[in-house]
Amino acid sequence: MRYTLLLPFFIFVLVLNAQSSLSLLPEWTEDEIIKANTGANIPYLTPEEKEIILLTNLVRINPLKFSRTYLEKYLNESEMERSSWYVTGLQTTLSTMSALHPLKPSKKLCSAAAFHAEDMGRTGKIGHTSSDGTPMDTRLYRYVPKAKVKALSENCQYGYKNPFSIFMDLLVDEGIESLGHRLNILDPDMEYIGVAIRPHSTYRINCVQDFGAVMR
Running DSSP on this structure, what letter comes out for residue 102? Predict the structure, then answer.
């Protein structure tokens, strides 16, 4: 009887791991992972991009558990100082904030993210301005008309191939005094997400996250 009860979750883990390299920590329930894994069945996302969405939603739906599990995993595996202001500040934020709704994948935002990641990758540039000088907001409004959204934001990360490292680098946001990447990830107003991971001629890999909230 014990094996019968465990079998459905065991199969679920195998199926999810077939799409993702993310190590599923036992503290997370099947229901939580399903709730967070909004990109699981989206055909235009790569397994790595799905993993970024999964991690983004895990920290949103249960910030304290994320701090105790995946943040601890990251700190144990990295050379980051636990006493760093960026680490202690994140721990405080995740232990005191309320849970947020998961973000849903948007094909338009994924297209916007892919355009920027490919542009930066081809030209070797970094930042939010396109290689032809187009500002971020102008570029994003080509994909999501201004009249239909109340807010858009963007994260860019360079150099890491592993989705877990990409995401944790953005969440910890070491060296960014404004904590802009972290704030975008934890923005309660955002509802949709687009992700693209592409090669970069200077930094090997670059990842773009685009976030959006629709007008009501």
Answer: P
